[in-house]
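This section describes the prediction task in plain terms. A model, or a person checking by hand, is given the sequence of a single protein chain and must write out its three-dimensional structure as a string of tokens. No templates, partner chains or ligands are provided. The sample shown here is typical of the held-out split.
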Amino acid sequence: VSKFEEIYELISKESVYGGQFDKFCSENIVRETAHKQQVDELFLEQINRWRISLSNSLLEKDHKYSSIEKLNDVVQEFINQIVFLRICEDKNLPLYHKLSDTIDNVLDMKSKLEELFRAADKRYNSGIFEGENIIFDLNNDVIVEIVESLYYPQSPFLFNIIEPNLLGRIYEIFLTEQLNFAVNGQVELKKKKECLNRSIVTTPTEIVKYMVSKTLGNLCGGKTPDEILTLRIADIACGSGVFLEEVFDFLVQHCVNWYAENKPEELIEISGGRKKLPLNLKKQILQSCIYGIDIDIHAVEVAKFSLIIKLIEDETAPSVEEATPILPDLHNNIVHGNSLIGLNELRSKTLLDDEQLDIVPFDWENINNGEAFTAIIGNPPYVKTEDMHNLLTQSEFELYKMHYQTAYKQFDKYFLFVERAIQKVSEEGYVCFIIPNKFFKIGAGEKLRKLIAAKGYLISLDDFGDSQLFSDKTIYSAILFLQKKNNSTFSYTKVDSLSALWLGEACNSVLLKNMNLNELPWRLTTDFDFMQLLMKIDNIAVPITEHADIFNGIQTSAERPTPVYWFSSDQIVAETDEKYKVEKEGRTYSIEKEILKPYFKPSKIAERG
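The expected answer:
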């Protein structure tokens, strides 16, 4: 107790989130270099080593794996299967026997492993084990090495406490690389083509939590669990599923709180006196409310895997005993395709089969029965026009130009995702994206600004200014929050840092009128004194057209040697209600009054243009 103040100063929430804890550790604690890695970095390195060793083992054994696409698929499936079994084991969930038991005897190791896979498939039935079985095509040593590396002392991980969002972050980076054939015929990891130039960023967990809370806090207030099941939340560029995991967690916790207050007997008690929902209700929430689309088939598989791990987070053997199967099938929830190009857009242009394969058009009837979503949330890809020309086929780029009003000048791909999200949410539905903040200033953002401002969709804009949220990228970010209805006002907030969000600190914020926004650059600045001044001006300002008649004067170069477009009052020789008769340069002209405007004729040569 006597040391409480010192302890609090070191390890309090404020200390950890504010960076003081890291600073103290770096200055005072000496550790071996090998142990300085973050868990996500260490586990990612381990997974990538498995990818290489598994691939080379398969290539040595059988030529049917000579397709790099197939190799990427089967290796990822096997890794997901192994990790899933290891997580279930540490959580004491039902398994035929332990993963480590399969390698006790090398002679029947593969048969035991296959038996374990079949039993897990039957009991869990989530699609994780339905892919091609590669066990008998693998080298024994590779299998033993991978299984042993998942246990102490080789593994530093306790899989029952590794949070699913940590696995999501690991897989987010995992998805930027794929297996590739090296010159020597061996397999190596190589950056995916689409990741070379575009900004691939892992959204910080607290940003994800903040955005989900901001969106679902509006949607879920006062709703019963049955009403929650009517919500449809999507991420249309879902990646590894980090946003969908957090959405699922929020909805589950909302239902826990409702039952605790209204029907506590429906909840199940778990460790630490906490309460949880029955597994069947969690499955209903997952299958009814959560949807995702991604153009990368491997991202789709990772997102499904991440959500399944999230589902079993607090489950135990007794809690899943009556569930058959234990897990849901998410094939209809998390789907593969290009969410920007549907079948309707595709019909407007004749494409070759190869071009269609590259575009991966998405049939929107294949998700949520073709209906609109209650909310769309996420972190869409940031890809400049220049990079799109390098990465995409010309046909795909032309389709974007044909079907998206925001595809204007040097547009960015995230413009299109905002437009698509607005199209695909229901009336009064929500869109919450974290995107670069330059769209409300630059010329190319004109059409996007107009789309948002014309109908008053903006609810709030959290501007991070020059604060950097992503460790390895320089991106000036904002959280855009829209509702598909006419909102009279929106809040503009200056957020100084991530820690301000983490700690729930008050940020400078101002309430502005949507009617003051249009396609012109938005007058938004983190200089709040100047913002307050602009607001005062807006409250008393009137259009200048109420006090002045504005028109274009003569715009012509035909002033020398004879001025042909203007005349003075002394050249008027007659007048009717509709016309002037003018004598000029020895000729007479009859000119309609409605086409004339007053004209200032400079008297000094220096004033003449």
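For orientation: Residues 605-609 have pLDDT under 50 and may be disordered.
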